[in-house]
Structure formats: structure tokens, C-alpha cells
DNA sequence: ATGCCGATAATGTGCATACATATTAAGGAG
DNA sequence: CTCCTTAATATGTATGCACATTATCGGCAT
């Protein structure tokens, strides 16, 4: 599976093995790249790639001149995949449905302006929609869009094409923020998601930016039972 | 910031620029590595590193012989950092506190056995503890440990050293699963976290494995208001 | 048309080498 | 002893080359 001993994957596996078996202990400095290359019988480049990869994963700590050490407190990194909603639903083998609940344009509340870094009073587009999986409520998409940043947003009506996909293909961002929290279902949430008020829901809030300009701020309110899963 | 045009970072930035400005459109095939190397005046290796990096980030789709294309539906990847709890609290500038609530050993429930892949009736260690930030409840750590997989777990009493840190330094895993969901506070949760029953809480469930053997299964139940944040 | 199969073109990887850069250690001046 | 300069060292990166791997394309036989 891992490939031969002299491939970067092979080196990576062997290094992991030594860390797991405590042959190299947390905090300890491991041999330098040149020595490892000699030991493994491969080029330093190969060792470098393996160790760099493990450093990115948080298993190793590398510093120039100081050398490479086994991370004392391995800050493991899990990568979350963030697909567009339609594909997330289809990937689970379910049929995607979409209902536009509201589309309006008005001066945004102060808190929204603050988060999107736009002048108070800027007229933003508000979109509220429901995504369905096999006909059942899946997630509420509650979104603000700044039409001054995204060309064509005023003309899109989001009744056929959902805002999530429209933005992915029509706007590009340089930076994004992402927060997951828990939320007690409001009466409105509960009615839309066909559940009971007070139910515990996952709320994902995402802001995306084009340079200094906030493009969109979205709250995704998932139906009960939703889980964000990944491997470490 | 980005370095000169002929560094892999420079290439990466320029490629991102072209994607953002729709100079290379989603789904479109971009020039091959050799051509790009000629255009940028650098080695193919350098181009390769830049494109490989962007492919890992989900921006590009690469296939041998078929070439490199701009991802149609950019499945962005956010990386979550998972530090040990004490350091997470200290990183926020707060003082970490710890209270062991329960430590027992008994035959595990069927559902736990199923998730940890151990025989039904296996005696597991159960640890329930509360972590505090500046004296206030921060998260409940509700954990099962398989002492047959982790040497020394039976001897550790977890009253001083918390199980989270003990495991990090005494066990190593080959694989881990990770799920975030929302949970309505039970009466017991509410009392421990000093909040009200029914409050919406973030629940992180993590299982770690050493090969085929489940090491530990933990539910982290965070106090209200907790957010998981990251950048994209 | 259909299916097999080899040529081909793209990425994936490894190697030897050179130089860049950061950081520590050592040494010298005051 | 302290501060500054300088040298040594480990990692970071770029290059040119070679070969491995794998889809895809196109031709050929059925």
C-alpha cells in the first residue's frame, strides 16, 4: 500500500511508525535530512517531502538550523470538505430539492454590515431558501449578498438557480471565515424544517471576501440529526 | 508577500489570479506543466509543486494524461485544528481548570462496543470530567477507554492528569473519526455546565483507533456559545 | 459498430546538485 | 560580563534530468 522504502510515502510511513512506537519520542529531535537520506538510501529531496508533509499534518515541528522534532502536543488537523449543498445531498444518494422562501433587497442591519465590512445603510440582497433531500427539509440557507461587489446579483432571482451555486460560479473569493455553532430552533426555523421549536440545530455561518469587500454572509441552519463528519 | 514570479508561491498566486479573474474558467483545461514552465521561465518541478498544492486545496482537478482543469465545483477544504483542551483554553488567554467527575470500569454498553469494535462485555474504563476556563464550565469530557489496547490505562487515575492529555502522550493512533453535531442539554449536562436543560450545545464525538482496535471514544459537550472557527 | 490493444501525452516521482535563508553557536571587542 | 559580529548548520527551494504511471486516443481485427 505504502510503496517501497525509498519513496516519499514509504519514508513517511516509516517515520510515523517510529513516532507511534515511541522510538522517537515527543519533543525529541530526529536525525537531519542528510542522515536520514543516507539511512533510507534515497535523496534528501525525498526525505524533505515526507517530513514536510508530516509537519503540515502537525506531527512534526521543523525549524531551520534547529532541526526537526516530534511535536510535543500534536495539534492534529482535520480537513473539512465544503461542497455545494446540492452535491452534498446527491453524494448521499438523495434527490435535491430547492424552495426559495424570500428574496428582498433592503438596508442591512448594523450587525450584518459590521461583519461584511460595508457602509451602514448599504442596500443588500437577502435570500432565504430551503434545500430538501428526498423531499424532506435539509437545511435553511439564510443569506445576505452585497450586489455592489458581485456583478449581476441584482438580476439573478434565485428561484431556479440557488444562491449557493450561483455564487460559486459567479463570484470568487480571496478569503473566507467559517464558524460552527449550536442553535435552538426558533418558531420560524421549526416550521420551515418541520421540527419542534427549541430543537438543537447545527448552524454554520460563513463569510466570504473579495479583498476587503464582503461578498456574502450566510447562515446554514441544518435540520435535526445533521452531522459534520470527517477523518483525522 | 508572495515572492518572485519564478517561485512556486509566485506561480500559485498567479494561477489563483487567473482563476479568480475568470481568465481560466471553471471546467476548463489549463496549459500543461511544460508549457507553463516555459511561460513562467522556471522548471517544471516548480510548476508541479504549485499546481499540486492547489489541487490539494480543491481548486484544481488533476489527472494523468487528461491534464489539469479548474475545478467545476470547488470543494473548498477548511482545516480544523484540534489541540488538546488545556492548550485550547490557554490559547484564549484563560486559565485551565479540571475536575474529575467519575472514573469507573465496567462492561460497556452495546452501542459503545460497536463503535469501538470490541467484544460485547469487554470491561472498559469510563471517565467523565469537566474542563473549566477561568473557573467557568467549558466542556464535558465523557470518555470510554479500552485498557486492553492502551497499556497503563488501568493504573492512571485521571484525577490530576486529565484523560485527554494522558492519552495524547501515552497512546498513538493510526486513524480517527470525528463528528460534530448539535445536542439538547440533558438535565445532567445542564447541571454540570451550569446552564438550562434543553439549551443547544455543540457535541464533538471522536473515535481513535490503533489499527483495528478502538482506543477511545469521547464525547465533548461544550458549554453554550462555543464556536468552532476556522478560515477557508 | 464493437471491442481489444498499443502508441502517446500528460502528470507523478526520484535524484544530484546548487544556492537561499533562518537560527543557533562561537568568538572577539568593549 | 555583555553586546555585536561572524561562522556553521539544518531546512527551504529551484533546476535539469530520467523514468514511472495512467488515461486517452486511434487504429485494427472481429
Write the SSE topology.
Two copies of one chain form a homodimer.
Chain A: H1 8-20, E1 29-30, H2 33-40, H3 44-56, E2 60-63, E3 67-70, E4 76-82, H4 85-91, E5 96-107, H5 110-116, E6 123-133, E7 136-145, H6 163-170, E8 175-184, H7 187-193, E9 200-210, E10 213-222, E11 228-231
Antiparallel strand pairs in A: 1-3, 2-3, 5-6, 6-7, 7-10, 8-9, 9-10
Chain A binds a DNA duplex (30 and 30 nucleotides) through helix 3.
Description:
2 copies of one chain form a homodimer. Chain A is an alpha+beta fold and 232 residues long. Chain A contains 7 helices and 11 strands. The first copy, chain A, has helices at residues 8-20, 33-40, 44-56, 85-91, 110-116, 163-170, 187-193; strands spanning 29-30, 60-63, 67-70, 76-82, 96-107, 123-133, 136-145, 175-184, 200-210, 213-222, 228-231. In chain A, the strands form 2 sheets. Chain A has a 6-stranded antiparallel beta sheet with strand order 5-6-7-10-9-8. The first copy, chain A, has a 3-stranded antiparallel beta sheet with strand order 1-3-2. The first copy, chain A, is elongated, with a radius of gyration of 24 Å. Chain A starts with 7 loop residues before the first helix and ends with a strand. The mean pLDDT of chain A is 93. Chains A and B meet through β4, β8, β9 and β11 of A and β4, β8, β9 and β11 of B. β11 of chain A pairs antiparallel with β8 (175-184) of chain B. Chain A binds a DNA duplex (30 and 30 nucleotides) through α3.
